Amino acid sequence: MSHDPPHQVLGIDPLASPAEARRRYLELVRQFPPDRAAARFREIHAAYQAFTDPLLQAETLLGGEGEPEAARPWKEIIAEAAETPPRLDVDLLLALGNPWHEPEEPEENAPGER
Amino acid sequence: MANKKKGRRKPPPRRKKPRSPGRPDAPKTAVRSDAAEALLRRLRTLRVLCGPDEHPADVAVCHPDATQPPDPAWAEDVDRVREALQAVAQGEDERSRQLLQALPRKSPLSPWRLLIAGLSDWYRGEQERAAAAWDRLDPQRRPGRIAAALRAGEAFQRRSERATSLDRRAALVHALRSERPALAEAEQATRQARLEDVSADQLQWFRQWQASWSSSEPELVKAIGRNLLVIARDHPDNRMVEQLASRVPGPAHDPANCLRLMKYYELFVDGEERIAAVKQRYLQQDLPACRTLSAPVKAAVASKLHYREAREVAGELQRRRNFMRFGMGRRFAQAEQELRRQAERGFRAAIEAYPAHRQAHQDRLRLLEQGPLSDPSTKAAEQAQQARVAEAMEQWASSLPEDIAPRRWLVHHYLENDRLDEATPHVEMLQRQRLTDPWGRALGWRLALFGAMSLARRKRAVGQAEAKLEEASQRWPAWLGREWLPFLQAALAWRAGEDERFAALRAEAEAAVGDFPLLRQVMLYAAARRLHLPNPQVKPLRDALSRMLAKSDGLAPHDLLKTGAFLWDLERIGALYPGYRTHAGTICEALGDELAAPEGALSAESLGPAALWLAGRRFGAESGSTRVLSLLIAQVESDPLVAAAYLREHAECRHQTKPYRHELQAFRMLQQRADAIEDPFYHHYIAELLEKTKWLDEYSDEAPRRPSPSWLDDPADLEAWFEDEENPDEDDTPCDCINCRRDRGELSDKEAEAIEEVELLEEALADEEFGPHPPEVIEMVRQMAAALGMDFDPDLADKAGPASSRRRGSRPARNSQNARSSSRK
Fold it and tell me: What pLDDT band is residue B801 in, cutting at 50, 70 and 90?
């Protein structure tokens, strides 16, 4: 089952209204009906239930009361991070669009150059 | 050998200091690669710059505070674009898409929509889709230049000749997204770190590494930091966790990791103050400021937090009550009051934060219904408690209007207390729900019956009361006997002052009931009291009843039985027998004596309804009712109503976690026969009872009684040993130990009760979830067992802890001084 927040699974704004959530839920159910995509349907259904039940969402956000969280192996964390390159932050992204002829840096090697 | 030259002794040869095997190595990041250094330098000096020919809309996006957009309508669009850029940077693609949906197509900012849409696809690896959007961008505008740099970064290859601006930006993108020196550094550092330890060196490394890479690799930094936080939980120095918690960004609703800290401080014996401080920060600052959670979810989170804390306090309260129940806990009485207040406050806070939190309502009510053990068992105390419960039920009903349980309780409570006006809206609400159970379908009848009772308060309204009673008569449920109705009619005539009519109606009613003087007297007395007849009329009836019960051994057994059944009917109606504090105990005792008599007259009768009344525990003779029900064990297998009574008796007694004797037997029997019960009331009643006691389903059939003496493995072996008739040389003298006598049914009631008490206490002591227990408690239980000749489990002595209580599973207070000093910072 997905551990992503319910709004992400449904692909809606976290502040979406219940009506919007329901609309999106029905759209997704048409795309992934239970007889053809059972696992995905279950995920969507669980996400919809959690989204429309604030107490369920709260339970997920607060985490369980059972056994304390165990540390993950470092290799696993590194491997997972390696699969997903980082998204660029806003200022860096905007800076990539500086005019071509503006002086950006001193005449030293830029990253990637030798 | 001494140094001859200077007269000093030659020092012994020095050995090399052995390498300590246990100390984890500090992460070896002393040498940062040139590429990483260059990248960091580049990142530090990078600025967002606008050219003189820059489109004003693009300038507004780059510097929203510095410039005023030429068109005021853009201000909102600029904010939307920036928010969408932020959303996509944080992985919230759908949110970014929705933010930009409102952007007009012809807006000068619409290229940003194309860029951001393509960006979402590009980050997800859908290059073709990204290209489809970006191909439509004007290369002279900033969105076009950004897209070009990103695409060039994807296809970046190092060149030896002088790089252009585009090349340099492509190199930057490539370094950040493909080469990722931050990842290499993390991999190197973590490869050498032992998983089970976080040292000061590692913390230092993390600080520096995080400072370098937190803006360009936020997710990686978060993941590493969170794992360190988890590992640091077991570190003896609590400052480690606190420092990490302040550095590692938590989730959106808890950026300062308050929830994690709260769980951490639970390990401390003296952690309450710190938990309270962190909780306050979370609830009053971080959670309200979270922009990615809706208001209802935030409220639910706050509610859950209060609820969990209240439940823990309520659990502690229950553990203390288990000891107080047996008169051991005068010292606990004050603590009980304080714990009760705390738990009640917690549940109220949970409900206030999120009124639709059903579990909080239910648990709060469970707490209120239990009542403090130190409260006197008086009418005033009971009424005060009922008032508190009623208030809580009203709150539940108004917070969750569709819920049936609180409204049912309130209808019962208001009708019982002659508050018809307050009952009516709940009755109407329940009737709208079209309940199918017998009680629900009889709501209209009950309202009419209690309406008649209420009207009878005023002599002038007796005519209306009679009309109401007639209405109730028309709607009388089929599952309830009508014997009491004539008594009500007679009492109303008496209330109206029509003595002759009263006498005639009374004679008719009594003739219909038959030759059961006690039953007739109780019915008339109940009718007179419920219809508020004045004391001069009621007193003779009460006195006659008291005289009858004073000679209870002269009462006919069937008369007692039928009276018990009538009292059960009153309970079914929801009309408490007015004399429950005075007569009911005597009736219960008398019934018990009759049942206990060898070859008694009641042995072949169906005792079901009377047994159900006995199980109600609505009067002071609680131990009497337990005794009586223990006499009915033989009928548990054959009579479903006796089985139901037995289950009902113990359903609320949840201060032990294993079934009482024969409770499981009763449960299984009812499970098998429930569907065949035709009476609609009992069919529904037993179904509800089974639902309430369904926890019994988890226990095996070997559970009903405690194990035999330790020198036998299997209780069956004891029986087999005594039943061995093949070897006449075996000593046939039965064992006289208390367990064998119990097995043979030779114990007196007092002995049986005393054993059950000790077994209960031993079970509470042995429960792994709770403890350690004060040594004086364990010693007292040991002495009680010894007095009865019972074996006391020597392992229980190991459950002793210090006299003061600790948190569950807590470790000794650690670094309290350090924690205090760090908390002052």
Answer: low
Q: Do A110 and B357 touch (CB under 8 A)?
A: no
* Dist. CA B790–CA B483, nearest whole Å: 51
Q: Do A96 and B42 touch (CB under 8 A)?
A: no
Counting one residue from chain A and one from chain B, the pairs whose CB atoms sit within 8 A come to 210
CB-nearest to A88 from B145, B176, B263 is: B176
Q: Is A111 in contact with B45 (Cβ distance < 8 A)? A: no
DSSP B690-736: HHHTGGGGGS-TT-SS----TT-S-HHHHHHHHT--S-TTS--PPP-
Q: Which of A60, A83, A98 is most worth mutating to test chain B (most B CB atoms within 10 A of its CB)? A: A98
Backbone angles phi, psi at B772, to 5 degrees: -70, 160
Structure confidence at residue A29 (pLDDT):
92
Subunit contact A110:B301, Cβ cutoff 8 A: no
User: How far away is chain A from the Cα of B425, in angstroms, using its nearest Cα?
Assistant: 28
Q: Read off the pLDDT of residues B409-434 as tens digits, 9 standing for 90 and up.
A: 999 899 888 899 999 999 999 988 88
* DSSP conformational letter for B800: B
Specify the range with the lowest mean pLDDT, choosing from B6-10, B427-431, B479-483: B6-10
pLDDT digits (tens, 9 = 90+) for B50-71: 988 889 899 999 987 765 656 7
Q: Is there a contact between A81 and B219 if contact means CB atoms under 8 Å apart?
A: yes
Tell me whether residues B86 and A54 touch, CB distance under 8 A.
no
**B227 and A74 Cβ atoms separated by less than 8 Å:** yes
Q: Which residue of B has its CA nearest to A109?
A: B38
Angle between helix B272-281 and B258-265 (nearest 10): 170
Q: How confident is the model at residue B358 (pLDDT cuts 50, 70, 90)?
A: very high
Chain A CB contacts of B65 under 8 Å are: none
The Cα-based distances of B415 to A77, B243, B387, B388 in angstroms read 64, 60, 14, 17
Inter-chain residue contact A111 with B183, CB threshold 8 Å:
no
Q: Locate the chain B residue with the closest alpha carbon to A89.
A: B89
Nearest neighbour of A91 by CB, restricted to B48, B172, B297: B48
Mean pLDDT of chain B: 80
pLDDT beyond 90 at B407: yes
Token couple for B309:
């804390």
Q: In this complex, do B47 and A95 lie within 8 Å of one another by their Cβ atoms?
A: yes
| pLDDT recorded at residue B642 | 87
pLDDT of B712 strictly over 60: no
Distance between CA atoms of A24 and A41, rounded to whole angstroms?
13
Give the position of tokens 């390696």: A82
Contact residues, chain B, for A58 at CB < 8 Å? 297, 300-301, 303-304
- How many other C-beta atoms are found inside a 10 Å radius of the C-beta of residue B104? 11
Interchain CB distance below 8 Å, B49 and A58: no
Give the model's pLDDT for residue B733.
58
Chain B hits for A70, Cβ within 8 Å: 230
Q: Which of B438, B368, B429, B367 is nearest to B404 (CA)?
A: B429
Region B310-328: mean pLDDT is 75
- List CB contacts (< 8 A) between A87 and chain B: 88-91, 123
Nearest to A110 among B146, B163, B183 (CB): B163
* Residue from B622, B627, B608 nearest B666 by CA: B608
pLDDT score, position A100:
86
Q: Kind and range of the H or E element at B3?
A: strand B2-3
Amino acid B22: pLDDT: 43
> Are B46 and A92 contacting, i.e. CB atoms less than 8 angstroms apart?
yes
Tokens, residue B735: 């064992």
Over residues B650-670, the mean pLDDT reads 68
Is pLDDT above 60 for B42? yes
Give the pTM: 0.69
